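Ticket #4471: structure export looks truncated?
Reporter: QA, pipeline team
Priority: medium

Steps to reproduce: submit the single chain below to the structure queue and open the exported record.
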Amino acid sequence: MAVNLHDFGEEFMQDLVTTSSETFDVGLYNDSTDSLSESSDVSDITTEPTGSNYSRQSQSASGITVDLSGSDAKTDFPTQTFDTSDSSQTVDSYFVVVNFDSDEAGDGGTASDHIYFTGSLSQSRDLSQIDALDVDNVSASFHTEERLTSTETGFSTRRKMHDCSHDRGCGFR
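Actual output as written to the record:
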């Protein structure tokens, strides 16, 4: 008999994360440049915005919901707003970081930041043209094939001269 992560196991794993006291950090980067792989970690991100007003957004687990309406357990983060008023990088992706003691990374008993999951924005954004970037519906789903997927289904930008809103979603598997 094959060993699979069953629907109830998916739900348990998502609930375990969202009911913890864990805090997650969400950031932006350019995956077209960094080309992260499954084994990449936070130190492999070289294109995170460097403006003094930009910072990773902190999200407590209590603000994250688990959606079981589809065939997979899906973890949904609320909108993340980034101040990019003095950043000039181009970004096309987001990442979520969690702080824990990783055996995979060989942390040796000391917790440190590691990538939880990454996802693509619906389009590449030149931050020199944007004062604030709202990333909506950052999420991850567990599938029975035991792979993690991530989707960013929309974002909006605020500019000094006018507002611009985009609702086109994009996802990957």
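Status: closed, not a bug. The export was complete when the record was re-opened. Leaving a note from the reviewer for reference: Residues 144-173 have pLDDT under 50 and may be disordered.
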